[in-house]
Amino acid sequence: MPNTNLEITQKAMDDFRKIQQHMLIAKSENATKTYESLKGEYLYLKSFLNVAGVNLTDIDIIKE
């Protein structure tokens, strides 16, 4: 039987990585509205992963 908590955390980590990539693209293109829109999802995922006990030190590229 798969560990659903682990699967949920893995999905959140994948989403976190994708959001950061999109934020970096938006920042480089000076797309402020897009960046700010993504920032809300980034902060949500960051807080979720923090509560789940994931060490974000190495995987948080944005660091906001």
Task: Give keywords.
mainly alpha, single chain, 64 residues, 2 helices, elongated, 0% strand
How would you sum up this structure, described in words?
There is one protein chain. By secondary structure, the protein is mainly alpha-helical. The protein is built from 2 helices and no strands. It has helices at about 5-30, 30-50. Helix 1 (about 5-30) packs antiparallel against helix 2.
Describe the global form: elongated
Query: Count of helices?
Result: 2
Report strand %: under 5%
Report the order of strands and helices: HH
The value of Rg in angstroms is 13 Å
Q: What portion of residues is helical?
A: over 70%
- How does the helix and strand content classify structurally? mainly alpha
Which stretches are low in confidence, meaning pLDDT under 50 for 5 or more residues running? none
Number of strands: 0
Q: Report the major sheet.
A: none
**Multimerization state:** single chain
What is the distance, rounded to the nearest whole angstrom, between the alpha carbons of the first and last residues?
37 Å
Mean of residue pLDDT values: 92
Strand and helix map with partners:
Layout: H1 4-28, H2 32-51
Brief synopsis:
The protein is an all-alpha fold. Helices cover 70% and strands 0% of the residues. The protein is built from two helices and no strands.
